[in-house]
Amino acid sequence: MRERIPVVVQGRRGRYDRRSPAVWALWTGAELAVTLGVVLLLFVVHQLWWTNREAQDAARDQVGRLERQWRDGAAAGPPPAPPADGSGAARPAVPPGGTPPTAPPSGRDTAPATPPRDLAYAILRIPRLGLTAPVAEGIGRTAVLDKGYVGHYPHTAQPGGTGNTALAGHRNTHGEPFRHLDRLRPGDTVVLETARLRATYVVRATLPETTPGDGTVLAPVPRSTVHPGYGFTAPGAYLTLTTCTPEYTSTYRLVVWAVLRTAQPR
């Protein structure tokens, strides 16, 4: 028999069998781009979902602890402080287009003295927004705001007190308690509770946008120096709520002002 000799047919070498440096660079760049995209996606998920979930759970637990302490009488707090003039606050000014606010109650204020820094000591309730959040002394990001708390500006009035009680909160991420602050309208109520009192404020005006340096919005008689048409001109008992605007930026500040309607001992 005739022996068959196997024939091996060698195909033509592919153009990119031996990858050139340019091809390797392109391949490596594509892998890095995909990896970076995954990392960025995970970062966005962490910021927009996980930080909110974590902070909202922590804030909810803190509200529950405060309510239990108050119910059980475990948080007596510091003694009430009298108003500066000893007679209660004068009637606030009327903002442009607003209605005359109700003067705060006369006699002694029942607001506590300044609590320790970073301590949650009050609860903010805004029915229109369905918001219930703890309030801590100070506005530090790590110690207060990133926990989903609302921060009380140091050196401003305490809840129910004469002057301007100023609060800040995140609008996006980390619990975002002030996400929908722009939805508040004149006449809406805002409630601040402490171990000793329940202060109810009525929204009077909103400053949709101002610069971060517009510090007079936190003054005892709050007003805007950037937008002079916004603010008050007479002493009173005010509440100022501030957050960043537009959403997902910190370029400007959104400000909501309210005036004290009642301050009742608990």
Q: Mean pLDDT across all residues, rounded?
A: 81
For the secondary structure, the number of strands is 8
Overall, the morphology is elongated
H-E string:
HEEEEEEEE
Tell me the CATH superfamily: Sortase
CATH topology: Sortase, Chain: A
CATH class: Mainly Beta
Relative strand content: 15-25%
Task: Report what the structure shows.
- By secondary structure, this protein is α+β, with helices and mostly antiparallel strands.
- The protein has a single domain (51-265), classed as Sortase (Sortase, Chain: A, Beta Barrel).
- Helix content is 20%, strand content 24%.
- It contains one helix and eight strands.
- It has one helix at residues 21-72; strands at residues 120-126, 131-137, 150-152, 163-168, 189-193, 197-210, 237-245, 252-265.
- It has an eight-stranded mixed β-barrel.
- The longest helix is centred in the N-terminal third of the chain and has 52 residues, at 21-72.
- It is elongated.
- It starts with 20 loop residues before the first helix and ends with a strand.
- Mean pLDDT is 81; it is low at 75-111.
